[in-house]
Amino acid sequence: MLLLRHHPASLRCHVRLDSAIHRLAMSTAASASAPPASSAASDYHCRTKHSLTAGYARGPGRLDWANQPNPFLRFSPPSQIPLPNPPPVIAGIPYPSLFHSPPPPPSPQPLSVNSLSALLFHSLALSAWKSAGVSTWSLRVNPSSGNLHPTEAHLLFEHPRDPGRLVVSHYAPRDHLLEVRSAAPLADFPALLPPLATAVLALSSIFWRESWKYGERALRYCNHDVGHALAAVAVAAAALGWDVRLLDGLSDEDLGYLVGVEKGAPPPPDGLPDKMVRGKAPWVERQHPDCAVLLFPAGSEPKVDYGAMSAALRGLDRLEWVGKANALSKDHVVWDVIYHTAEAVKKHGPAPGESFSVNPWRRNTVLSDGLYKELTAQEVVRRRRSAVDMDGVHVMGRDTFYQIMLHCLPSGDVSPEELQGPPSALPFRVLPWDAEVHAALFVHRVSELPKGLYFLVRNEEHFDMLRRAMRQDFEWERPEGCPDGLPLYRLMKGDCQQIAMQISCFQDIASHGCFSLGMISRFELVLHEKGEWMYPRLFWETGVLGQVLYLEAHAVGISATGIGCYFDDAVHEVLGLKDLEFQSLYHFTVGAPVLDKRIMSLPAYPGPGIDA
């Protein structure tokens, strides 16, 4: 059992919140407090919780370095479209201007090899190589749990140098190029690129890359990374004058045709196993189709016919596909629950009444552009790093904290009569559903703001539901100086550093920053009302929010990191949440990083030519 240290009774947050966790740790029934699971998604979610009493979710226990998956998927023999590296200079946009200028963003760039290069270079490309001793590894613009990068990207577009030719390609970030998997006359597939559309970008996951390290909990992390990638693409596209919207009416089967699931690793020979299996299992290197987004000029609204697009995607299966996928590992571990759950939460087509639509573009509320460093949006996204330690000293200004919180709101700058919830601001506008995710904040070092527990309500329709579900002795007071239109509330004053550290698997980084947070999502009702296919999408939303926090931190001159390891029900106990009405899906910390001087930074391109 993990034991907790107690704190001075002079601080209310220490006493009241630490005692809540202590009660949970001492309760032998704590791990069984949730009601019986009613769906595959909730069953998986409860099964993969880290617990103060029952221990951590099932994982490998040790790392099998000999079989660490190759982070780079390649197809050979390749038919390639080289991309300018770096892309030709397109006028840099000051980072705050991308969010604060009157919408829509700059005049749209035409589709070209140069603009495709810029899109990918500032969203999914390598950002650096790191070296320490005999080890060398790559970093990317889009963050990933454990830097394992399960996410693959695919682009469908009209070849800018061969008009009328539709190209289906895979992005290879190590060499910053597109691998052409298939091609056909665009006239044969007009529904795939409707009028006004620029391109379609699809994301897929290779679960094995995450489960190699994290075991059964890896499905959560893969979907965090989908959200990170969605936000990265949305921000890079906005800098080109493009908008991005999820094509969420497509089924998982449709998406499989687009990413070429059956054109890569083989399927399981005898169906999905019903237990964990060790040994050669090349099928676990198959891609799982996650989602696709439509890219189009900002300010326009393409008309998408999901039925026609679905039929056209199925037609891709009849084309000739080129390239054989490289093997990622010699041996594997099959965490069966991941694949059964992924199968159960697939979406099978548009929800009733679902159609493609684009929300009006809204800017974010601005306190002062002077709170940010003089960096372009392109510089910020490529400088993003995941901190591995915080200094425990740096104090953030209150206005900077409030500005970051304003950028976390989905609806942007709304009128006093409107509520936060609909996704209209960058990058949340990539998502077609109203916000489901909120933030419970542990404020440690923000000047003129008392230390304590705070809560950001990102969908104000949920406010009454949240108050009823959480501890009845919480204050729900607006903090001093809080801007109008920012639904931020102080729940309790006091030093919460030990609490933040304890619930985040005793990681000091959760207490050594300026603030840390848990992302709290409406859960059981969402799965019941909309369907189990919302389970991965809730994690996508947390990943989008996490990417905003990454970029905001770097834009003001500090750093951040996502925290996937936390004690789920300890977080819920702190907040007073019971059952599965709300669940904590992702944690995060923001502060001044401690840099490890033993690690050498190298340019992203040209790299050392290794797969790491």
UniProtKB/TrEMBL annotation:
Coiled coil: none annotated. It comes from the Eukaryota. One of its GO terms (molecular function) is oxidoreductase activity. This is Nitroreductase domain-containing protein. It comes from Oryza glumipatula. The lineage of its organism: Eukaryota, Viridiplantae, Streptophyta, Embryophyta, Tracheophyta.
